[in-house]
Amino acid sequence: MQAQAGTTAAIAAAVFKGRADRAAPPTPARPAAASPFDALEQFGTRRAFRRGQEVYAAGDPADRCYRVLSGGVRAVGLDEEGRRHVAEFFLPGDLFGLEAADARHLSAEAVADTVLVWYPRRAVEAMAERHGALGRRLREVALQGLRRAHETMFLLGRKAAGERVAAFLLEMAERAPADPCRADGARVALPMTRADIADHLGLTIETVSRNMARLCRDGTIAATKRGVEIRDRRALRGFGAGTAKH
Question: Rounded mean pLDDT of 169-187?
Fold first, then answer.
């Protein structure tokens, strides 16, 4: 009898809860954090690129800029002797292609199967004048690019080979989305090839591979399907001092 009364009470409670749930208005979902780049979406056009496909060539009109949705892009130039140099990598979320000149200084190529959205340059400039947040964000992008260029110059001029590889991995980790579940380690996607990394750091492919293998043996990093996992950030910061520059 008591069991039946308990069952009846449970059913009544469930019915009452169901009526209350139907009567109460649904809790609105928390909106995602707005990005200043959202103001550009009305002008955006998506396009997919295959690995190695050119986005634009040096000398092309600089009449549009791009945002990486997935994959990655390398900015490439040739020196006087025809040797390739990878000036910079653009990763998901990065905006690139805004230049002070009217023509492209470097070429841009997809390092993996990549999806970009492009915006007309004039529309971006006009929108930046009307939207303070967008204008500030574009200035931040320009200053971040300038800082990375300065750091790369210092890296190539002063650092040993092992230090260059370690600094590159730390930079990629800094640019990767934060993982609150990992206090020290971080999974870092590396869509570019070892040849791309070598041409970015002024090293040979063999030197990059040798230093990456040593970091894996030491337990500082671990290879993953799409990149590496940094397991000891402190050891990575101190890696490579005193090694050869090439």
Answer: 72
Structure tokens given for 54: 């050119």
Q: How far is CA 161 from CA 7, 108, 175, in A?
A: 73, 26, 21
Token pair belonging to 115: 């999806």
CATH topology of domain 36-156: Jelly Rolls (2.60.120)
**Sheet strands side by side (includes 114-120):** 45-49, 114-120, 64-70, 95-96
Q: Is the pLDDT of residue 61 over 70?
A: yes
DSSP β-bridge partners for residue 117: 46, 67
Q: Which two tokens stand for residue 228?
A: 């590496």
Q: Where are the domains of the chain?
A: 36-156, 159-237
Q: What is the CATH number of domain 159-237?
A: 1.10.10.10
Question: Cβ of 149: how many Cβ atoms within 10 Å?
Answer: 12
User: What pTM did the predictor assign?
Assistant: 0.76
DSSP E strands in 61-197: the ranges are 64-70, 73-78, 84-90, 95-96, 107-110, 114-120, 186-189
Detail the DSSP E strand segments found in 91-224: 95-96, 107-110, 114-120, 186-189, 221-223
226 DSSP 8-state letter: S
* More confident of the two residues 84 and 19: 84
Given this model, what pLDDT does residue 128 score? 80
